[in-house]
Amino acid sequence: MKIQNMPSNEKPREKIINNGINSLNNIELLAILLRCGNKKKSVIELSMDVLNTLDSIDDISELTIDELTKIEGIGISKASIILASFELAKRIFSKSINKISLPSPKLIYEHFKPLYYNVKQEQLYAIYLDTKGKMISKKLITIGNINSSLIDDKSIFKWAYKYSASAIILVHNHPSGDSTPSKEDLKVTAQIIRQAELLGFIILDHIIIGDNYFSIKMNYKL
Asked: What does each C-alpha distance from 62 to 57, 65, 132 come to in angstroms?
């Protein structure tokens, strides 16, 4: 559907004015960046095409301009806008979280809380740090209930090797808003700590984000 044919309260720009930027989903945010569609597709449809090529929204910042321009309707201009926007966001995030070594649970909460706004499923991220405790990168690892049967621990350590990380901080959300860890949260954390020790990595913390945050490391000895 073309944006001009949408009800006024559903148009991305009107939603920003009435409800704030956080009210937009990923498709709508990307549509704002792309501005317009083409003769074949609306800007909303183009945004969906871009996001459908990704496993997660994080991966968009790792696309090349050649990969983006292979998507029908995305030319060099639109591809450049997408890459520039995500690169700017990545630099802001990296700079602020790297102001101190070993980012505190509160600092991590402040940066991840907007990311989890209105997210209805649990999402597990891994933050990778170097030997000085500075962040190298972060990756979305798992979407869905964080439990021992679903968690992709191989992916956690695959990226740790790729980034030559020394330590890892796990972060996931509780959509209910209650950041208290479940028995499964504690079980999964203990499991990953043991695996990390065998592989030569350190799990510095597992932070759960809801209406507030909970540091498992600060409250439990696993």
From this structure: 10, 10, 25
The runs of H, that is alpha helices, within the chain are 12-19, 26-34, 43-52, 65-69, 76-97, 105-112, 153-162, 183-199, 216-219
Q: Tens digit of pLDDT for each residue in 133-144?
A: 888 888 989 887
The residue range of the domain holding 18 is 3-96
Residue in this structure with the two tokens 């050649």, named with its chain if needed:
66
Final residue belonging to a domain, choices 62, 96, 130: 96
Give 1's contacts (C-beta < 8 A, 6+ positions apart): 42, 44
Instruction: Tell me how many domains the chain contains.
Output: 2
**Predicted structure pTM score:** 0.58
**Same domain flag for 33 and 118:** no
Q: In what order do the strands lie in the sheet with 202-209?
A: 135-143, 123-129, 167-173, 202-209, 213-215
Q: Please report the pLDDT score of residue 98 as a whole number.
A: 52
Burial of 26 (0-12, 13-18, 19+ CB in 10 A): middle
54 and 14 together in one domain:
yes
Are 176 and 70 found together in one domain?
no
